[in-house]
Specification:
Elements: E1 7-12, H1 22-34, E2 40-45, H2 47-50, H3 57-73, E3 82-85, H4 92-100, H5 105-109, H6 112-120, E4 123-128, E5 131-136, H7 147-161, E6 167-169, H8 175-191, E7 200-202, H9 237-245, H10 262-275, H11 279-285, H12 291-317, H13 320-349
Parallel strand pairs: 1-2, 2-3, 6-7
Antiparallel strand pairs: 4-5
The protein binds adenosine monophosphate (AMP) and tryptophan.
The site of adenosine monophosphate has 16 residues, from helix 1.
């Protein structure tokens, strides 16, 4: 019998309208697609995490489907990987509750992402040891910090441990959440008996951090206030090309990677990843050429890479029957594994067996 493959799980939030960026593609989804042969893969779209901020219900539903269709269009294969919506699998919230009983509140209040989000809502977070206090800054405080925001990392730990994942591909910004997950798994194992694998973060070495086209010292982001800095996967080709052609470049005219040329360096990185050419080759190719020619070629590479992605996206986004089939199958496979782990956890903590 063939040996079981190691399990990989990762999830993403259906942020905003669910539109993925070229940064998501290069830094994440493209790499997940290459793992599908060697790992048993679970890819979740975490709608339950999405309601820690207010969302228009119809918009959220639409964003979930759009995100799913973009993943498939980028090469995630529903035949190989389980693609699912978090709310379709029983066990995420259940396990999160159990884990929360092993999570000191202080650990959650210290999370960088939580502090940043609370501060965005207009709260000042002051910490002195374990004692963390929030204070309003008068009118700036728009809403209270809901406990879901604080509890977010416990739900994320549950997402991971529910599948007993061996590895979790994430960006650097999620490292702290992964550490919390590992601590929780260890604590549970020590309290009862070995139950969970201790999941490793899988942070790509060449994390190709795609930068904003308008402010190339900042990461390209879905939620950038300046939409010209971000390339969305499903944007019309003319718009993509226009944004690339008006990307901020640097003084001088040389086309090479350098610390004082963040704009040009970013475009070279994009071209290198998409064409498979090394940075050195690209620098050589464009010796003596001007920025306009170079940008034209970057635009072409992006548009041509995304052409089949967009075609596939448009083919399936309106095919509700197909997408529902993917979700039904994905959730069933995810549920199968999730129930096994959840039952084990329930027995270990001492919940009586369900009476049949
Ligand atoms: P987010 O869009 O922040 O939900 O991130 C989803 C995934 O895409 C994570 O694994 C991120 O590390 C990755 N990612 C997001 N933006 C970029 C970027 N500009 N460059 C490279 N990877 C990114
Ligand atoms: N917190 C992650 C993000 O903001 C999304 C996420 C939720 C996640 N659950 C997860 C990522 C489990 C990996 C594994 O990007």
């Amino acid at each position: 019998m063939s040996e079981a493959k190691p399990v990989i799980l990762t999830c993403a939030q259906p942020t905003g309208g669910g539109d993925l960026t070229l940064g998501n593609y290069i830094g994440a989804v493209r790499n997940w697609a290459t793992m599908q042969e060697d790992y048993e893969c679970y890819f979740g779209i975490v709608d339950m995490h999405a309601i820690t901020v207010r969302r228009e219900p119809a918009e959220l539903r639409k964003a979930c489907y759009s995100c799913l269709a973009q993943y498939i269009a980028c090469g995630l294969d529903p035949e190989k990987a389980a693609l699912f919506f978090q709310s379709h699998v029983i066990g995420h919230a259940e396990l999160a509750w159990v884990l929360s009983c092993y999570t000191p509140i202080g650990d959650l209040q210290r999370m960088t992402q939580f502090k940043e989000k609370a501060e965005k809502l207009g709260f000042q977070v002051k910490s002195a040891g374990d004692d963390i206090r929030f204070s309003h800054e008068g009118a700036k405080a728009q809403a209270s910090v809901n406990s879901g925001l604080l509890y977010y990392p416990v739900l994320m730990a549950a997402d991971i441990l529910l599948y007993n994942a061996n590895a979790v591909p994430v960006g650097e910004d999620q490292r702290q959440h992964l550490e919390l997950t590992r601590d929780l798994a260890q604590r549970f194992n020590n309290t009862y008996s070995p139950t969970f694998n201790i999941p490793n973060a899988y942070i790509p070495k060449s994390g190709a951090k795609v930068m904003s086209l308008q402010e190339p010292t900042r990461k390209m982001s879905k939620s950038d206030e300046n939409p010209n800095g971000t390339l969305f996967l499903i944007e019309p080709p003319e718009k993509l090309a226009k944004k690339i052609k008006s990307a901020v470049t640097d003084s001088g005219s040389e086309i090479r990677v350098a610390d004082d040329k963040p704009g040009v360096s970013n475009l070279i990185t994009i071209l290198s990843v998409l064409t498979g050419k090394s940075v050195q080759e690209i620098e050589k190719d464009y010796q003596g050429q001007n920025y306009a020619t170079f940008k034209g070629d970057v635009a072409e590479a992006v548009v041509e890479t995304l052409r089949p992605v967009q075609a596939r996206y448009h083919e399936i986004i309106s095919d509700k029957v197909y997408l529902e089939g993917v979700l039904k199958d994905g959730a069933a496979r995810a549920q199968n594994r999730a129930y096994k782990v959840l039952n084990k956890v329930y027995r270990k903590v001492g919940f009586p067996d369900r009476v049949r």
